[in-house]
Amino acid sequence: MENLITLAFLVVKILVITHVLLGAVAYTVWLERKLIGRMQNRWGPTRVGPFGLLQPIADGIKFIVKEDLLPPGVNKPLFLLAPLLAVALGLTSLAVIPFGESITIAGHTEALQISGFMRADGSIFDANVGLLIILGVTSIGVYGIALAGWSSNSKYSLLGSLRASAQMISYELALGLSLVGVIIMSGSLSLRQIVDAQGGNILHWNFIGGWQFVAFFVYLIAAFAETNRIPFDLPEAETELVAGYHTEYSAMKFAMFFMAEYANMFTAACVATLLFLGGWHSPFEGISWIPAVPLPPIVGALVPVFWFALKIFFFIFFYIWVRGTLPRFRYDQLMAFGWKVLLPLAIANIIVTSALVAMNLAPIGPK
Amino acid sequence: MADNQLAPYLPILMQLLIAAGIGTGMIVLSAILGQRKYSRMKMQAYECGMTPTGDAQHRFSVKFYLVAMLFILFDVEAIFLIPWAVVYRDLLKIPGAGLFGFWEMMVYIGIVLVGFFYVWKKGVLDWNTPELSEGPNE
Amino acid sequence: MIHQALFFIFAAICVAGALNLLLQKHPISSALSLIVVMGSLALLYLLLGAQFVAAIQIIVYAGAIMVLFVFVIMLLNAGIEEHTEGSRIAVYFGVPAVAALVGMVLYVLLKTSHIEYQVQLGGFVKPTRDVAMLLFREYLLPFEVTSVLILIAIMGAVVLARREP
């Protein structure tokens, strides 16, 4: 019986958090169009609702009622499976991500993390290898794009998906290796423990206090490539490949690839925040001369969530800003950059970090 | 449920199922509500408005294969680095071991780096060297 | 209870994936079945308490090695397999060999089923830390030798991909 109640809470938690993410995805598209518009001296969407705020809803309805094309010559099961795989895997990583401590509503305490559980003493435990699960889900995410291109039976799709897969696996290496320095600092693969090791103000975060700034930039660049964002959007380079791997897709299936891409952007931003920017900790935490404001417990529980969301927003803004600023890489430059610059940098970072820890120079560590 | 170490993995599985359910729902909804008008030209594979020429049955550069192969190998290397990073501080604390935990990994990384520089010198990492690439049609 | 249920579900998925791998005619369908097998194996490892191994199984096998398989199938544009009549050696040696294997597994199972020392699902959970400590202290030599293996494999891959002079 008790298990059933836990299970029911779990389902509610998953549904709420997943739909918050889907809403955030829809409004990130709006934000992107607005910001890019301003950067290019245009208005962006203005017609549907005030400031075009209802644009995502209009787009959603349009995607659903558009004709769902199934071109002849496609491999039908795989053609359907590819967008499904992309969306499902894009949303799965969300389960591991913690975004605060815990919240008590009407006497029931729930961890602010889908896969987090409360212990009897009030502490929270989450998946022991949470970070690896995100890496695993990311590595399987390649199939969504690979299958989309392969099953479409179109030259552009196939070229786009080959490029995308080669790019994603190349940058996945740099991405994985850039995390090793953080793991040395925190001595754990549980995302919650990694954040706990950075508890305190901005100087305690891995980005500064753990000397992981090189790793942070390697991660950030690799994450751009993993999510196929400009300047690494060669898989869908519209000037040469029409739309890359989703050329033959239409209606909702087409939109699903975008949802997956934006969900992956959020995951990458969450991981960057958790690993390098102290997760939900406030940059002013524990500074004695800032007066502590007494807050009601429910607001107090939501303040960390606010800091977490603010950091995520910073990354999302950065993604959009970069898109408005940089041109696209050439393919040989892209591959050379991943293998010859990012990979050696990530390995050098591991060597330097471990040497610093060996010499007892590392300021932060597991609690 | 409360103190079971494996408990946190169940929500991840459920999240995967629910996410797959949401995705399926989207496809089904769009298939039901979307209108359908058949037209022969529309159903052709897209090729910038031209009649498609040939099939999408090309063979591609062997470079792609090499990248995937190298990815596996360096991925295995990265996988060994992760548990090492987890226990690195503990390895340093073992009495009498000194910097053993540091050097054992440096030897390992060093050997793999030899392979990396071999690949670099062979030009595998340059995408446009003629020696290894095979062109789009063999 | 829930462990047993999950074990049987994923064991069934694993076997079904393996059968599908053999029955499918298109190489890409077979490759996808193999990914399903790898994934469900990871779940079985997890149920046995090996969290780290389960994650590695997904990252390396389902995420890296199978990407190479799918890549090669895409690159070669391999079509539907032609089914041959089946070789005679497979029938004359394969069938008895399979029978012998099944017999042996059954024998071992029946012989050990009453022993109390059994595999416990979910009852024995090892953190990554313990695996790592074993790997980097007691099994140091095998670990270091893997780097040489990786080095040789890198060279092998480059040599294989070279154009014949």
Helix segment tally of chain C: 6
Q: What is the CA-atom radius of gyration of chain B, in angstroms? A: 26 Å
Broad shape of chain C: globular
**Which fold name fills CATH's third level, the topology of the largest domain in chain C?**
Four Helix Bundle (Hemerythrin (Met), subunit A)
Structural class of chain B: mainly alpha
Number of helices of chain B: 3
Largest interface: A-B, 95 and 70 residues
Tell me the Rg of chain C in angstroms. 20 Å
Q: Whole-Å distance between the termini of chain C? A: 62 Å
User: How large is the share of residues in beta strands of chain B?
Assistant: under 5%
Q: What level of helicity do the residues of chain C show? A: over 70%
Overall average residue pLDDT of chain C: 84
Provide the CATH top-level class of the largest domain in chain C.
Mainly Alpha
Describe this structure in words.
- The complex is a heterotrimer of chains A (367), B (138) and C (165).
- Chain A has one domain.
- Chain A is 62% helix and 3% strand.
- Chain A contains 13 helices and four strands.
- Chain A has a two-stranded antiparallel ribbon.
- The model of chain A has no long low-confidence stretch (mean pLDDT 85).
- Chain B has 138 residues and is mainly alpha-helical.
- Chain B contains three helices and no strands.
- Chain C is built from six helices and no strands.
- Chain C is globular and about 55 Å long.
- Classes of the chains: A mainly alpha (367), B mainly alpha (138), C mainly alpha (165).
Features of the shown structure:
heterotrimer; A: mainly alpha; 13 helices; 62% helix; C: mainly alpha; Four Helix Bundle (Hemerythrin (Met), subunit A); 6 helices; 77% helix; 0% strand; globular
What's the topology here?
The complex is a heterotrimer of chains A (367), B (138) and C (165).
Chain A: H1 2-39, H2 55-65, H3 76-92, E1 102-105, E2 108-111, E3 117-118, E4 124-125, H4 130-140, H5 142-152, H6 155-178, H7 180-186, H8 191-196, H9 213-226, H10 238-241, H11 251-276, H12 297-325, H13 331-358
Antiparallel strand pairs in A: 1-2, 3-4
Helix pairs in contact in A: 1-11, 1-12, 2-11, 3-5, 3-11, 5-6, 6-9, 6-13, 7-13, 9-11, 9-13, 11-12
Chain B: H1 9-33, H2 62-93, H3 100-121
Helix pairs in contact in B: 2-3
Chain C: H1 2-23, H2 27-47, H3 51-76, H4 88-112, H5 128-138, H6 140-161
Helix pairs in contact in C: 1-2, 2-3
